[in-house]
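User: Hi! I'm working on a homework problem where we have to compare a predicted structure to a textbook description. Could you give me the structure for the chain below?
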Amino acid sequence: MDLNQLKERMDILLASSVVSTKAADISTLAFMHLQSHLKKDAIDGAEMLFTHLPTALTRIEKGEQVEAPHPALLDEVKQSIEASVAIKEIDYLQQLWKNKLPQEEIDFLVIHYTNVLQINKGGN
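Assistant: Happy to help. Predicted structure tokens:
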């Protein structure tokens, strides 16, 4: 997924009122930040993360909650060397959001980010 594909995805989600403008804008900035970290224009396997992220932010804006991921899955993901980078990306996201995200959402984002980071190891 490259930036143009991400913007197309955000436009579709916005047009169907699935995500808010703020959530789409922050997700786009988070994508560009991840591109910079990975030193890649196209991020392989990013579709799930960058669909979950703006929908999660929109849920948070609406005050909706989500159940946490299964603890065993989260524990397994946190063993990855990429998990610490995932947490740094989420910290950046929280700076953009200007609020701490609910722990359940952070846990899902750790899973998604770690997966994308593992797929894209090594950059270009």
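For your comparison, note the following. The chain has one domain: 3-119. Helices lie at 3-15, 21-38, 49-61, 71-78, 83-97, 103-119. Good luck with the assignment!
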